[in-house]
Structures are given as C-alpha cells and as structure tokens.
Specification:
Number of helices of chain A: 6
Strand order of the largest sheet of chain A: 3-4-6-5
Number of domains of chain A: 1
Helix content of chain B: 40-55%
CATH architecture of chain B: 2-Layer Sandwich
Shape of chain A: globular
Distance between the termini of chain A: 33 Å
Strand content of chain B: 25-35%
Largest sheet of chain B: 4 strands, antiparallel
Helix content of chain A: 40-55%
CATH class of chain B: Alpha Beta
Number of strands of chain A: 6
Oligomer: heterodimer
Radius of gyration of chain A: 16 Å
Radius of gyration of chain B: 16 Å
CATH architecture of chain A: 2-Layer Sandwich
Number of helices of chain B: 5
Structural class of chain A: alpha+beta
Number of domains of chain B: 1
Distance between the termini of chain B: 41 Å
Largest interface: A-B, 52 and 56 residues
CATH superfamily of chain B: Trafficking protein particle complex subunit 3
Order of helices and strands of chain A: HEEHHHHEEHEE
CATH class of chain A: Alpha Beta
C-alpha cells in the first residue's frame, strides 16, 4: 500500500490537544505546546536581524539545531505513537514510506505543506514546502535571507531517523545529516526547497 | 471546526485544509515540543537576548488574551483572571495561579511548567531562571486583565522550579 498523504493529513490534523489538569501536554514522549506562530517567527527574525554580522552564522546554526532536536525527538515519538500506528503504520512497507508519512504528519501539524520530491536512500533528499509559517516574516516584497531554520532542522532530523541508525535519546544520531535551504517563499520563490545530505 | 469547553475558557480549534494551518480562537498556532522551547531559551541566554524572548512572548500572548476578552465581552475581573490562567494551560505552558493582582504589582505562582519541566527533563537543574516565555505571558495577562497597554509591567522570577524550588514565583511590578 502506498502512503496516502491526503488521509494522513486529514486524520492527524483533527487531533485536538489541550493541556491536562496541570496545563501540560504530555504526548509523543515530549511536552507539547501550541503557541502563536508570531512568537516563533518574531524571536528568530528579530534575533537574526539584530545580531552582529559575525555572529549570524552561529545564531542561524543554533536555530536550525533547535529544529533538528525538535524534529528528531518529537518525530521519533510520533512514529512510535498510537496515532501513527492507527493511521500511518498500515501504509508503511519501506523505510522510505516512513519518511513520506513523516512529512505528511509535518503538514498536518501546521509547519508547512511539505512533500519529498527526490529521495536517494541515505544519500540525498529534496523536500519542497509550500505555505510554511516561517515564510510569514515577509508580508510584501522579498528578503535575501533564507529564514526557514526550523524546517532545515526538521528535514535533517527526519532523514536521521530514517538512515542515521538507532534512535539515540541524547540526540547524538540526530546530527549526522545537514540540510541546506536552496529556495524560499520569503525570498520570492514559489516554494521552499530543502536538500539533505550526509555531513 | 471543533469547539470544546475547558472550565470557562472556550477554545475553538480549526485546521484550514487549504493553507494547512492551525488556528486556536482565530489565532494561528503551531505545535512544538519542549526541546524547541528550551533550545530557544538557551539561545536567548547565550545571545544575551532574554529580554527579546520575553518581549516577543508578551506581544504574542497579549493579542491572544485581549482578543478573547473582546470577542467574548469579558469584563468581570475574576473571570478575566480565570480565563487568562486557563489559556496558559490550554496552550500547554503549565499552570499559573494569581496570588494577587494590583495596578502596581502582583504575584503569580506556577507549580507545573512546560519550559521548566522540559528543561529539567532535557538538562537537569540550572542555576539561573529560564522561564522568560512564562514571564512574557504573565506580563501580557496583567496588561490585558487591567486594560493597560502592552509593556506596562516588568516581570521577574523570584523562585524557580528549574533552580530546585517547589514552584516558580513571578513577581510583577509596574514599570
């Protein structure tokens, strides 16, 4: 059975999550939150624009690293969850199916409408993302600074989960791959493009 | 659109199938985990930009809370306090209880915290306070409840779960 992206998005986007009696959302082996996108974009965009130019690369790396950690641990929690088991697992036959399923879940979670367009197992993955929230930093015109740090981290993390060996709770195996952003909606492109390769 | 009630707070969740975006009470939101919030916080600490983190949080949450009060015609003080506390929990940030609230000062305590329990789970105890996102929320809720402009209050943690205290205490002072 091929991965039915539409069904995954339809089913998993309906999950309604609210904090428990302590205000915590304990799911997928992590604490989950649902904060306004203005918060995430606001901090990343203001920080990367105000930081001294010689510190920009390090700052961007840390923003990507945050996404990579998030994608690795939460991604692992998702593929071990009962929701995944019920909706996605019956469609999975290969490791590549897991990746296609994970990007459908990414879309259902509201991070961006993401789909793999090229996949060479353990070598290269090209992901195309439409309407991702990190591109909302530009309302008019375009910027030269590609700003989808979270998505860069997530793409690399998902590839690590597929090909980076056993899941490592300390995150060591999360960092085996690198992701470059080659196109961005915020830069005037029709979609964001992300290319993952081994380090 | 799904609508469900949690105590007095009404939360309406919508997923726009065309744009693939989530909305809580018409505010666009997104799911993230404690790894992401704690690493954002660590970055703010490393870059010396905790004020920025707190300010951006305050802006984001002020709009959320104020819009809710306006949309639902909430004018009663007790109700405003309850709703603001329930909203914090609905977002998954933990719990907050207002010990007292005044025009010039206040105290809020939190026994459960997404950021701080997430920090402890990821790295263990720390010798500095880390809940700048919570500080931003508390500043926003005080301004929204008292119909003051954003940025009216200064908030600082005086006790901290992540430092080993039983609960976190936010102290609020008018600027």
């Amino acid at each position: 059975m091929a991965v039915n992206r539409k069904k995954i998005i339809e089913d998993l986007s309906k999950i309604e999550i609210l904090g428990n009696e302590n205000g915590l959302i304990e799911k997928f082996n992590v604490y989950v939150n649902q904060l306004p996108i203005h918060f995430w974009n606001g901090f990343a965009e203001r920080l990367t624009n105000k930081i001294a130019p010689d510190l920009l690369e390090a700052t961007e790396y840390l923003l990507i690293h945050a996404g990579q950690n998030c994608g690795y641990h939460t991604g692992y929690g998702i593929i071990k969850s009962e929701e995944w088991e019920a909706v996605v697992a019956p469609m999975i036959e290969t490791k590549e199916d897991i990746l296609h399923g994970a990007f459908a879940v990414l879309t259902a979670w509201g991070w961006g409408n993401a789909e793999i367009v090229e996949l060479l197992p353990n070598e290269k993955m090209v992901v195309r993302v439409y309407n991702y929230y990190e591109s909302d930093i530009v309302k008019y015109g375009k910027t030269d600074k590609m700003s989808a740090y979270m998505l860069r981290g997530i793409c690399a993390a998902f590839f690590s989960l597929a090909y980076g060996g056993e899941y490592s709770p300390n995150g060591d195996n999360a960092l085996k791959y690198n992701c470059l952003q080659t196109k961005g909606i915020e830069c005037g492109d029709e979609y964001g493009e992300f290319i993952v390769t081994p380090n | 659109m799904a609508e469900f009630k949690k105590n007095s707070l009404i939360v309406e969740h919508k997923f726009d199938t065309k744009t693939k975006r989530h909305y809580l009470n018409n505010t666009q939101t997104v799911f993230h985990c404690h790894h992401y919030t704690t690493l954002y916080t660590q970055l703010a600490l490393d870059a010396g930009e905790t004020v920025l983190l707190q300010n951006v949080a305050e802006e984001s949450f002020f709009d959320l809370i104020s819009n809710y009060f306006e949309t639902h015609n909430i004018e009663n003080l007790d109700e405003k306090v309850d709703i603001a506390c329930e909203y914090y929990a609905a977002l998954g940030l933990g719990d907050v209880k207002v010990r007292f609230l005044g025009e010039d000062s206040g105290e809020v305590i939190s026994e459960h915290s997404h950021i701080e329990q997430g920090w402890l789970k990821k790295w263990g105890k720390y010798d500095k306070t880390v809940n700048y996102i919570g500080c931003g929320y508390v500043a926003a809720m005080f301004s929204a409840i008292l119909d003051k402009p954003i940025g009216t209050f200064f908030v600082k943690e005086h006790q901290s779960i992540v430092k080993g205290d039983k609960f976190t205490m936010f102290k609020i002072v008018k600027k």
